[in-house]
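Protein in question quoted for reference:
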Amino acid sequence: MIDLHVHSVYSDGTDTPAELVKKAEKRGLTALALTDHDTVGGIEPLLDAASGSVVEAVPGIELSAECERGTMHVLGYFVDHTCRALLEKIETVRAGRDERNTEILKKLNKLGYVLMWSDVEKHAGCDVVGRPHFAEALVERGHVKSRKAAFDLLLGKGRPAYVERYRYTARECIELIHAAGGISVLAHPATIHLPDDQLKGVVKGLKACGLGGIEAYYAEHKPENIEKFCGWAKDFDLICTGGTDYHGDNSPDLKLGSGFGQLRVPDEALENLKAAKQLLVQS
């Protein structure tokens, strides 16, 4: 069993990289990819924790891309987490997040949901601060009953406290991942809210930009989604990958490796990523 989409305290997860490795061992995983949002801060701790472990550590990242309808993320696998170009671009995204966070805080307080920055910051991990941490602070302050309610009422796209932030285009995400020596994969394509014919056209266009794979196996994908995206992967010569999008206690019903119980990511997904990485090294 493998899981190629996992988050840690370096973005919006609740487990440290070392804790993730221990949990993966207990769950019987043979490989785990850390794909934190817009940061590679957890990669070195992950590699250290997995040294000597039966769990293979895969360095990764998840970048947010511009998307008019829904959400588009691009995963990068086997990236060089010391790549200067990658680190510089991430810093630009971080600055955009900081500006956004300031505006969200202002909006919440203006709306009467009083929060201090310290309320939010203490819920964040080691690196990126985002909307999930605002949601936790709102719950703790008693403003809302749950994280979901915080997003539905205030923080979700189109809601009163939502603030747009800087994102790269999907092409720029793919190019950045390639510049860092990684393989790019379109994450959870079902979160892009387009009719199938238009979405398939998007995937075809991203393939022309250098996209290497598509995340067909995903905890929230229905069987028909998995079958469809695997078919598109075959049509466009893309690698089928998968993972749970595990966030620890932030998604308590979702289990590392198996998602909501039925997910099984084929081992060949990792083997195909490795083969693509080897071809990239040789080119």
Remarks:
- The longest strand covers residues 56-65.
- The domain at 2-89+166-282 is CATH 3.20.20.140 (TIM Barrel).
- The mean pLDDT is 92.
